[in-house]
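Duplicate of #3305? Posting structure anyway:
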């Protein structure tokens, strides 16, 4: 699993520091407006506090909030097709500096951005709340802040170490990685991918084309309608897995576990003649879509929807 290296990759981004531009004074409050393209890329970074993003139908970015004690200031660079908004740490130690986190107060950033803007957000111990975005891409990276993301962006890449993740939307592709934070997704479509170590994964959506989910000890629950030629692959070590399949679906279904239990509304579960192990292989309807579920000790539940 890629998730095993997530904590290291996030904390290691201190090496990706960019040269700082002219910093705004650290006075409170923050109140700035910048002209940008309607589909501009907006990069936002904050170490501690919160980032809130709302959308409007203007070709500009409005920034408000309060700068935390100890910060060197707020740097805003660019305009037009690309704008960067960055809270500067007490020392120029780069991104995701744990020392900077402990020496500065919370910064609250609120941004109003064009509805079709592309968003790149990086935080350490700051919460992130994004509402209404419909840009080509949304990318959020966090260490411990809670993430709440709602809208209809085309592609979404979300990663966190321990913060809770809630996603509502994403039209074409959604990729979520977490170590211990729980993941809750509603109304996403297209291609869906989830990985956690101990965090639970709970997904409810109308229709999807491809789904991949993996965990070590978290639970996985998937509810939604799979495309006729869709693919589902789910793997777990000790976490339980539950999947709903429409009664009129056409699916080739395979499930197996080493020491867990399998309960299914479809087909017949078989036990190994010698030693542990249970499996299920069945065709629902005329087949076509492919579903594969594997666990080591986690239970598997497959229900008719």
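Output from current build:
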């Amino acid at each position: 699993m890629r998730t095993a290296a997530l904590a290291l990759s996030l904390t290691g981004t201190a090496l990706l520091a960019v040269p700082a531009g002219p910093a705004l004074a650290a006075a409170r409050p923050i109140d700035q407006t910048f002209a940008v393209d309607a589909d501009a890329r907006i990069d936002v970074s904050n170490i501690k506090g919160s980032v809130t993003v709302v959308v409007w139908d203007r070709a500009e970015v409005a920034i408000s909030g309060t700068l935390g004690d100890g910060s060197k200031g707020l740097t805003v660079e660019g305009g037009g097709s690309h704008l960067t908004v960055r809270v500067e740490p007490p020392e120029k130690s780069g991104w995701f500096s744990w020392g900077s986190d402990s020496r500065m107060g919370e910064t609250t950033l609120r941004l109003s951005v064009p509805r079709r803007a592309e968003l790149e957000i990086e935080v350490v111990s700051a919460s992130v709340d994004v509402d209404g975005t419909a840009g080509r891409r949304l990318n959020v990276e966090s260490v411990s802040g809670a993430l709440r993301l709602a809208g209809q962006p085309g592609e979404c890449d979300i990663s966190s170490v321990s913060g809770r993740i809630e996603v509502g939307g994403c039209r074409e592709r959604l990729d979520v990685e977490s170590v211990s934070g729980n993941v809750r997704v509603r109304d996403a479509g297209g291609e869906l991918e989830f990985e956690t170590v101990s965090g639970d994964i709970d997904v409810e959506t109308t229709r999807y084309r491809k789904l991949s989910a993996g965990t070590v000890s978290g639970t996985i629950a998937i509810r939604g309608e799979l495309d006729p030629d869709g693919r589902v692959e789910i793997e777990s070590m000790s976490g339980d897995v539950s999947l709903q399949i429409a009664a009129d679906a056409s699916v080739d279904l395979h499930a197996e576990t080493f020491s867990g239990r399998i309960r299914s509304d479809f087909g017949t579960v078989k036990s190994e003649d010698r030693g542990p192990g249970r499996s299920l292989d069945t065709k629902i309807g005329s087949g076509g879509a492919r579903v594969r579920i594997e666990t080591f000790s986690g239970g598997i539940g497959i229900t008719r929807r």
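Confirmed duplicate; merging threads. The chain has two helices and 22 strands. The CA atoms of residues 70 and 103 lie 6 Å apart.
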